[in-house]
């Protein structure tokens, strides 16, 4: 793709540093001081939990928790800040981050992605924009690409269930057949509305299998605002994290994030990020985070704030999930690449190549 005039960013992103309030640092403070130059050079994403103030300090970003010592980060080393909880900043900082091409993503009270602060994209391309719009305007082309994307997403749902069926969970096999039947109808859909309808039915059947994998994973009904139980709270929070990273990785391409192929394209949201997140939510949010953490008993009563009709992750729970997410995003080896962020970025460029007619898009499928 680089040979066609498109300046692409490296596919392998650097590791992440996690900043948070009232919690032990991921790296002991002494180690940070000893290896300070290396630490700064390898950081590009910052996660901020509750009650934090961020401000400009000369040409650095100062992060000050409500309690504890403030720390400064060179803005040149940052690309993405994910805010999870209450954070205070002013317009001076917003301008400073915008000039340095640092995106800030916000998750709301329930863990859903609620918005972002970003500079005007420096990677805008009229050629890509027109090609994207052309696909959306031609219903047959849009439907074909949407089928490829949701076909990949539904295959990842199936592979999650097959993983457990192959390891002795025979009771999930009838549900695998049900999800497969919905996927077959999905691939034969005559419209985007039909496509999304069959995808919704496949996902509903998929959720019904969770309690058979582990009783602690049981979900009666998908609820969002607010989530009403622990698993719904985890799904909302983890999906928000996945969406935030997908949006950031897509911004490294020339694609217009408001022009989507599955979800209705609008100027009010980066709906293309929702499209890309469909492929990775079953893998990263469901299998690697939720299944992995629940099956390993990594979350307990103290990790949730539960009231009548509402359940949210507590600050301790958010910290645990974010640490696990950070590990997967930046350190886990995936197909010879370091971290899932690299896989998401590769997927974004593959989608761009399809839009430009350079190659047929083939969605990421997670192996069983």
Overall description:
Helices cover 47% and strands 14% of the residues. With 368 residues, the protein is α/β, with parallel strands linked by helices. The protein folds into two domains: 2-117, CRISPR-associated endonuclease Cas1, N-terminal domain (Ribosomal Protein L15, Chain: K, domain 2), CATH 3.100.10.20; 126-355, Four Helix Bundle (Hemerythrin (Met), subunit A), CATH 1.20.120.920. The relative contact order is 0.13.
Reported by name, the CATH topology of the largest domain is: Four Helix Bundle (Hemerythrin (Met), subunit A)
Structural class, judged by helices and strands? Answer: alpha/beta
Described by strand count, sense and barrel closure, the largest sheet is: 5 strands, mixed
Our measurement of the CA-to-CA distance between the termini, rounded to an integer number of angstroms, reads 30 Å
User: What is the name of the CATH superfamily of the largest domain?
Assistant: CRISPR-associated endonuclease Cas1, C-terminal domain
DSSP strand count: 13
């Amino acid at each position: 793709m680089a040979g066609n005039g498109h300046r692409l960013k490296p596919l392998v992103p650097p590791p992440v540093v996690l900043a948070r309030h009232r919690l032990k640092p991921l790296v002991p403070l002494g180690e940070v001081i000893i290896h300070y130059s290396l630490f700064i050079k390898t950081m590009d994403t910052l996660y901020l939990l509750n009650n934090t103030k961020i401000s400009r300090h000369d040409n650095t970003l100062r992060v000050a928790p409500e309690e504890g010592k403030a720390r400064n980060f060179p803005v040149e080393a940052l690309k993405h800040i994910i805010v999870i909880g209450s954070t205070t900043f002013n317009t001076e900082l917003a301008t400073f981050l915008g000039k340095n091409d640092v995106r800030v993503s916000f998750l709301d009270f329930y863990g859903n992605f609620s918005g972002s602060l970003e500079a005007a994209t420096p990677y805008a391309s009229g050629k890509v924009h027109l090609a994207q719009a052309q696909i959306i305007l031609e219903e047959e082309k849009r439907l074909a690409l949407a089928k490829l994307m949701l076909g990949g997403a539904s295959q990842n749902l199936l592979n999650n269930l097959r993983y457990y069926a192959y390891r002795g969970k025979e009771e999930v096999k009838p549900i695998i057949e049900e999800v497969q039947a919905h996927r077959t109808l999905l691939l034969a859909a005559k419209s985007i509305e039909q496509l999304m309808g069959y995808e919704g039915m496949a996902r509903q059947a998929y959720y019904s299998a969770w309690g058979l994998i582990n009783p602690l994973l049981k979900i009666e009904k998908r609820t969002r605002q607010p989530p009403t139980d622990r698993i719904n709270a985890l799904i909302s929070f983890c999906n928000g994290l996945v969406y935030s990273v997908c949006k950031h990785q897509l911004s490294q391409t020339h694609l217009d994030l408001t022009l989507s192929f599955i979800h209705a394209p609008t100027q009010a949201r980066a709906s293309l990020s929702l499209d890309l997140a469909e492929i990775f939510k079953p893998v990263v949010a469901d299998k690697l985070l939720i299944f992995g953490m629940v099956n390993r008993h990594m979350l307990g009563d103290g990790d949730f704030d539960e009231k009548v009709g509402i359940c949210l992750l507590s600050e301790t729970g958010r910290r645990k999930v974010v640490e696990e997410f950070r590990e997967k995003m930046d350190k886990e080896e995936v197909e010879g690449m370091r971290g899932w962020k690299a896989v998401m970025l590769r997927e974004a460029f593959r989608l761009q190549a399809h839009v430009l007619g350079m190659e047929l898009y083939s969605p990421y499928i997670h192996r069983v």
